[in-house]
Structure to design on (455 residues):
């Protein structure tokens, strides 16, 4: 009763102060009753007075005390209103990471789409080779990733992502959480599809039967993992709409531990990334490639490692994922790292195809066809080969000359070995063991040879 009387006198005093001093005191009067009580208690325990706005705004202990009290005594909406009013009174500038987030989202989305379009367009229009399962899954990943980029830009950022929650209207907060729900489900699906594209690429380039069995088992695990998390994320709340209405604490419903769901997915995804890196790395000692190709393979693996690092950084942003009192600001990190992870992963999956295109554009720098000549001198039975023992060229000559009483025939023969792009990609990794049996099944390459004999 004593507290109520004190609060009543405080309100009357504030009304009088508001009429005398203007908007600042008027803003204080507009605070919810629960927040006024918190403010009155905090001011009593501090060296400040309500009339000294500078002292109230700069006293960190007082501010923290009022905020903690409001979170405990007021509803969510009343707490946000209190925070908005106090930040306005203290002239705290409005923070925004909207422009940075939209720039990262759109830029990476466009870059990853360009990589996929170049990859598919080159195979269909230039090399005219059939698309593999890895190509189909990268297309599906792009088709689900483009809508996600649009949803993040139009849905999330235009409804408060990157701003403080207390600066937003309540209906806008609800729309933000609804779009974030769609982003979460889509992220789980995209991540699994991206890993499938990489795994089917491994299945195509590694011929060893024991490695293929490991890859197939990993594909089965990834499919199971992806479907499970998509279904669980869709139905994590009952009713489903409770996901985006429970933020205000005024609606009935139940949800599973959303924070645990995010952590579990991140932990499994990182573990799977490490396992998928271990598969090609375990075969690295068996590679029989020119050093230029080895550099290209090393670069692809390096990019894959970067994706794993990004996944770990994203994991750190999940610490306050479901417990934040400022979700539109705090979940900017989760959204940003998820965008980077998926789009960089798509670029990584396209690196092998980019290598083939670069080899075609810059054959002298990145090409792997060995150039050499073959010379045989009949009579002395000597041979000359190029450094790599390769055969190249298009013409050959045979000459006969006389030296004294002996005749010697000089015969020079040159070849051109032509590889199509599909075979070049298949030859990215040559393994021991099953290579010979697999090599017999490969399509024979075309050899062109022409010669001219002068007697």
């Amino acid at each position: 009763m004593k507290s109520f009387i004190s609060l009543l006198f405080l309100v009357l005093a504030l009304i009088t102060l508001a009429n005398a001093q203007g908007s600042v005191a008027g803003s204080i009067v507009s605070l919810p009753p629960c927040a006024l009580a918190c403010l009155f208690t905090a001011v009593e325990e501090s060296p400040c007075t309500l009339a000294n706005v500078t002292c109230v705004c700069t006293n960190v202990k007082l501010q923290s005390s009022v905020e903690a009290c409001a979170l405990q005594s007021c509803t969510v909406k009343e707490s946000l209103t209190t925070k908005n009013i106090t930040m306005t009174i203290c002239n705290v500038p409005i923070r925004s990471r909207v422009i940075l987030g939209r720039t990262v989202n759109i830029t990476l989305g466009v870059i990853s789409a360009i990589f996929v379009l170049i990859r598919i367009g080159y195979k269909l229009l230039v090399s005219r080779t059939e698309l593999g399962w890895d190509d189909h899954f990268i297309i599906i990943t792009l088709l689900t990733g483009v809508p996600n980029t649009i949803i993040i830009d139009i849905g999330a950022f235009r409804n408060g992502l990157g701003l403080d929650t207390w600066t937003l209207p309540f209906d806008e907060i609800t729309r933000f959480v609804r779009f974030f729900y769609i982003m979460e489900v889509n992220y789980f699906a995209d991540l699994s599809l991206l890993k499938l594209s990489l795994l089917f690429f491994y299945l195509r380039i590694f011929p060893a039967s024991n490695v293929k069995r490991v890859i197939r088992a990993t594909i089965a695990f990834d499919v199971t993992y992806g479907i499970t998390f998509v279904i669980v994320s869709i139905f994590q709340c009952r009713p489903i709409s409770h996901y985006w209405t429970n933020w205000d604490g005024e609606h009935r419903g139940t949800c599973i531990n959303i924070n645990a769901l995010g952590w579990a997915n991140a932990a499994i995804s990182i573990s799977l990334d490490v396992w998928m890196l271990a598969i090609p790395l375990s075969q690295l000692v068996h590679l029989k490639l020119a050093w230029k190709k080895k550099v290209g393979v090393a670069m692809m693996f390096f990019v894959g490692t970067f994706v794993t690092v990004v996944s770990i950084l994203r994991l750190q942003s999940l610490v306050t994922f479901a417990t934040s009192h400022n979700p539109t600001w705090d979940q900017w990190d989760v959204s940003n790292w998820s965008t980077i992870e998926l789009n960089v992963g798509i670029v990584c999956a396209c690196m092998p195809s980019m290598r083939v295109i670069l080899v075609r554009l810059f054959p002298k720098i990145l090409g792997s066809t060995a150039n050499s000549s073959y010379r045989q001198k009949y009579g002395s039975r000597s041979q000359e080969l190029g450094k790599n023992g390769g055969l190249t060229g298009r013409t050959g000559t045979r000459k006969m000359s006389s030296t004294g009483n002996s005749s010697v025939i000089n015969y020079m023969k040159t070849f051109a070995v032509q590889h199509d792009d599909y075979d070049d990609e298949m030859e990215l990794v040559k393994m021991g063991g099953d290579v010979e049996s697999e090599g017999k099944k490969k399509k024979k390459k075309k050899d062109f040879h022409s010669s001219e004999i002068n007697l």
